[in-house]
């Protein structure tokens, strides 16, 4: 039996390509997806990450010992609600919040029409009284002439005693009336001064130099030095603060008030500027306690005022020991806790140099709230990443976040 001829067996080219085409498509698709994934990862890695960078600074060690901490507010010793001395309608207001005014500067004016009428009337009365005085002086001069003639006639034996007495009486009468009229003139002048004062009271002026912190009246409103029952009348024009009298007022628990003495050094920190330490000192301790809060008020004066200090700001103060204890003056480097990361038991930071990160191991000392002291590993002027260290790597190219 002869062997079969296998050379005649062939696979049709059309069938071969039709059966192999799905596998080829799957293979090409997988390769293409892999290439796209690799390119995407490479593109993402090649893009520089944006980081926040800070410069560290070494500061001298603090040898001040804090005896007591307290909180309070900035308050002025001189704060005034400027009011008119009379009741009237506001015709102009020149004061506005934030305006610095000098002593005697006009803040507002009131309707002065009634005051002008009263002043004109008082002046007219004064002029009429002065005119009457002039008339009496003329009559007095004539009466004195009559008295002289009566005396001459009486001496010559021609005139009667009655005529002489009448002439003398006329002179004395005019003299008395002149004295009365002079007093009436003084009274009329006083009425003019009162009317002039009423007119001057229509102008409201600043009693001292300061800062306007509140505008309390508008044009057209009625103002009065006394409160009106209906509530439609204002009692003030503006509120003025003497910025040179700013100080701190704090409540100290009466259990610790013995630690506070007048003249004691104080460090104040405004809530608005937490990194600004302001030197101050105790001005006075108010000699009374609050029963409800069991506290004693303490007033603290700033050693030097600054425009950033404004009334009613929140402030925290530290009362310092009079004689500071000796302490090391070695510089300290404090960084935010977010700038430090634990990596396999080591404490590290990331330095920023020429667009790249450098992993640096550091030694941490004291920890104070949200800051940590770096005692080794950093020097003054180093730039480090201040936050978000989780995904950073040594040698990674980064850019500074704007």
Verbal overview:
The structure is a single chain. Helices cover 29% and strands 34% of the residues. β21 and β22 (356-361) form a beta hairpin. It has 4 domains: 50-61 and 328-400, conserved putative lor/sdh protein from methanococcus maripaludis s2 fold; 66-76 and 244-320, Elongation Factor Tu (Ef-tu), domain 3; 79-112 and 202-241, Beta Barrel (OB fold (Dihydrolipoamide Acetyltransferase, E2P)), CATH 2.40.50.100; 113-200. The chain has helices at 13-46, 113-156, 161-200, and strands spanning 49-51, 53-55, 58-59, 66-76, 79-82, 88-93, 100-101, 106-110, 203-205, 210-215, 222-223, 233-234, 238-241, 246-253, 265-270, 277-290, 295-302, 314-320, 332-336, 341-343, 346-353, 356-361, 363-368, 371-376, 383-385, 398-400. α2 runs antiparallel to α3. It contains 3 helices and 26 strands. By secondary structure, it is an alpha+beta fold. A 6-stranded antiparallel β-barrel has the order 4-14-17-16-15-18. Strands 9-8-6-11-12 form a 5-stranded mixed beta sheet, with no helix packed on it. The model has no long low-confidence stretch (mean pLDDT 82).
């Amino acid at each position: 039996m002869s062997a079969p001829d296998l050379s005649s067996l062939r696979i049709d080219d059309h069938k071969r390509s039709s059966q192999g085409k799905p596998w080829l498509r799957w293979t090409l698709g997988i390769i293409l997806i892999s290439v796209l994934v690799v390119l995407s990862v490479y593109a993402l890695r090649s893009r520089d990450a944006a980081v926040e960078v800070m410069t560290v600074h070494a500061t001298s060690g603090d040898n001040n010992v804090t005896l007591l901490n307290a909180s309070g507010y900035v308050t002025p010793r001189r704060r005034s609600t400027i009011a008119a001395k009379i009741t009237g309608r506001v015709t102009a207001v020149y004061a506005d919040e934030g305006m610095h005014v000098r002593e005697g500067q006009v803040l507002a004016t009131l309707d002065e029409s009634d005051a002008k009428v009263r002043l004109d009337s008082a002046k007219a009365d004064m002029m009429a009284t002065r005119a009457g005085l002039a008339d009496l002086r003329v009559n007095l001069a004539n009466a004195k002439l009559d008295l002289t003639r009566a005396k001459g006639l009486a001496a010559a034996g021609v005139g009667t005693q009655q005529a002489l007495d009448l002439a003398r009486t006329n002179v004395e009468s005019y003299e008395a009336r002149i004295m009365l009229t002079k007093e009436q003139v003084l009274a009329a002048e006083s009425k003019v001064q009162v009317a002039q004062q009423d007119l001057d009271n229509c102008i409201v002026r600043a009693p001292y130099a300061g800062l306007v912190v509140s505008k309390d009246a508008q044009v057209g409103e009625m103002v009065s030095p006394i409160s009106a029952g209906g509530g439609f009348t204002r009692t003030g024009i503006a509120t003025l603060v003497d910025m040179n009298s700013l100080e701190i007022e704090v409540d100290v628990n009466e259990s610790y008030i013995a630690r506070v003495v007048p003249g004691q050094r104080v460090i104040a920190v405004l809530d608005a500027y937490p990194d600004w330490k302001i030197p101050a000192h105790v001005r006075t301790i108010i000699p009374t306690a609050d029963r409800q809060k069991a506290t004693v008020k303490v007033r603290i004066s700033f050693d030097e005022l600054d425009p950033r200090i404004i009334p009613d700001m929140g402030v925290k103060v530290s009362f310092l020991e009079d004689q500071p204890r000796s302490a090391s003056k070695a510089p300290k480097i404090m960084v935010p806790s977010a700038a430090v990361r634990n990596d396999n038991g080591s404490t590290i930071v990331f330095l920023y140099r020429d667009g790249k990160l450098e992993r640096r191991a550091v030694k941490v000392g004291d920890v104070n709230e949200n800051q940590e002291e770096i005692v080794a590993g950093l020097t003054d002027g180093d730039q480090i990443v201040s936050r978000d260290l989780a995904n950073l790597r040594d040698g990674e190219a980064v850019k500074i976040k704007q």
